[in-house]
Amino acid sequence: MTKQSFSEELKHLRKLWTGFMPSRVLLTANNLRVFDHLTTECAPKELSGKLKTDQRATELLLDALTAMGLLRKKKGRYKNSRISNRFLVSSSPHYQGNIIRHAHFLWQSWSELDGVLKTGRPVEAEREIESFIKGMDDIAKLRCKEVIDRIPLRGVRKALDLGGGPGTYSMELAKRGIGVTLFDRPETLKIAKGLIKERAIDGIDFLAGDFMKDPIGKGYDLVFVSQILHAYSDKENIRLLRKIKGALNPGGKVVVQEFYLNSSKTAPLWGALFSINMLLNTTGGRTYSTSEIKGWLKRAGFKTATSKRLDETVIIIGK
Asked: Residue 126 gets which letter from DSSP?
């Protein structure tokens, strides 16, 4: 082994074991809404007064954020970098602060990984709903048009957005003249209704319940299932897909969007890490391979299953 390769391996390892440090700095800055205050230049004393934080601690945080590329520093004053203005200021249409706030709540469950590996059971923790649902909207609003563009919509008049959370995809479908039913739990639909009203989108009905237990309706030309299957076991997913099959009109289709893994379950990295997230927070969920999901569709009665990759997710269409 050369001296250079030894050094590179050590740097890689150090990057892995210290990865929580920049994460915690960003989570804390987001919680304090630091970036909302730094659309214009600000000194640490002034900012600490606004945030009601210690001035020395605030300055150290700002320096770390600058080192991370999230701020710019000039003559002792700080201002957002372009990436922060685009994604971390709450007034931006591209704001990602809600999903980052959700990551703050995940911090607790991820800290219990040692124990979960021994018991195999998820962490018992109170679930914070608002940041999770609005965080799903943060992510989906940046990609929903691209995702829906990949779905053949000819002949689709009535669609079900199953477990549709904030209703972001429901809104995109409704914009295209499709009648949509958004199905989710009552507490989730309350948040979704607020977002849909705020964006003045019509053509969406609501159905509250637990899709694993309750009726989901019938007569759909399309059932959209985005980021749902990873929360459940193989058997539960097959049962759900059979239920979906029974809710479709003849010739109807199901569209699944999911994170994915390769056949060895070792790549991509995000899919493998998300499996750990499901280990910590669900009783049987994990990230699945595209071939596994296609296999479930066949077992559920769909004749064909085709897939299209979109960055970190895959879209699988069953007919």
From this structure: P
**CA geometry: angle at 124 spanning 121 and 127, to 5°?**
125
CATH classification of the domain holding 229: 3.40.50.150
The residues, any chain, with a CB within 8 Å of residue 103's CB and separated by 6 or more, are: 23, 27
Domain boundary among 92, 120, 155: 92
Distance (Å) of CA 52 to CA 32, 38, 88, 121, 142: 10, 15, 20, 40, 33
**DSSP state letters, 132-198:** HHHHHHHHHTTTHHHHHHTS--TT--EEEEET-TT-HHHHHHHHTT-EEEEEE-HHHHHHHHHHHHH
Q: Which residues pair with 180 in a beta bridge?
A: 159, 204
CA separation for the pair 98, 38 (Å, rounded): 18
Angle of helix 97-110 versus helix 129-140 axis, rounded to 10: 130
**Phi, psi angles (nearest 5°) of residue 202:** -105, 170
Domain count, the chain: 2
What DSSP state is assigned to residue 319?
-
Give the Cα separation of 124 and 255 in Å (integer). Answer: 32
pLDDT in tens, 71-101: 999 999 999 999 999 999 999 999 999 999 9
Question: Would you say 79 and 41 are in contact if contact means Cβ atoms under 8 Å apart?
Answer: yes
Which range marks the domain in which residue 16 is found? 3-92
From the CB of residue 74, how many other CB atoms can be counted at a distance below 10 Å? 8
Tokens matching residue 8: 């590179």
pLDDT in tens, 256-275: 999 999 999 999 999 999 99
| Angle subtended by helix axes 129-140 and 186-198, to nearest 10 | 50
d(CA 109, CA 200): 36
Tell me if 235 sits within 8 A of 292, measured CB to CB: no
